[in-house]
Amino acid sequence: MQTLANWDGGPGPWILFFPLIWAAVVIGVVTLLRRTVWRGRRGPRAADSSPSGNSPLAVLGRRFASGEIDEDEYWRRLSVLDEQFGRKGGA
Fold first, then answer.
1. Is 3 helix (H, G, I), strand (E, B) or coil?
2. Which residues lie below 8 Å from residue 85, measured CB to CB, with a gap of 6+?
3. How far is it, in rounded angstroms, from Cα 59 to Cα 38?
């Protein structure tokens, strides 16, 4: 009777690398999904170009939307903010 200890022609010690290969494949698939498919469900990251929070442009937009300032005042103040802060890729 042949036992595994004395059996020649078996898979050898390299068979222990199969779990490592499968782990690498699973980690690769999860990483790929996180970077492509699953990101789309959460929406864009920090690359949002619209003003948010308490930035001067956001405050100005809220004041114009609520009717505190008229259109002329909005454009005048917006041009001052553009000169002061500058817009990325502005015209």
1. coil
2. 56, 57
3. 33
Of 50, 78, 49, whose CA–CA distance to 64 is shortest? 78
Whole-angstrom Cα distance, residue 75 to residue 36?
A: 39
What's the pTM?
A: 0.38
Say how far apart CA 90 and CA 67 lie, in whole Å: 26
d(CA 50, CA 61): 11
The amino acid present at 70, given as its one-letter code, is D
Ranges assigned E (strand) in 1-91:
none
- What distance in Å separates the CA atoms of residue 4 and residue 6, rounded to the nearest whole number? 5
What is the DSSP-derived secondary structure letter of residue 17? H
Ranked by mean pLDDT, the top range of 10-19, 60-69, 82-91 is: 60-69
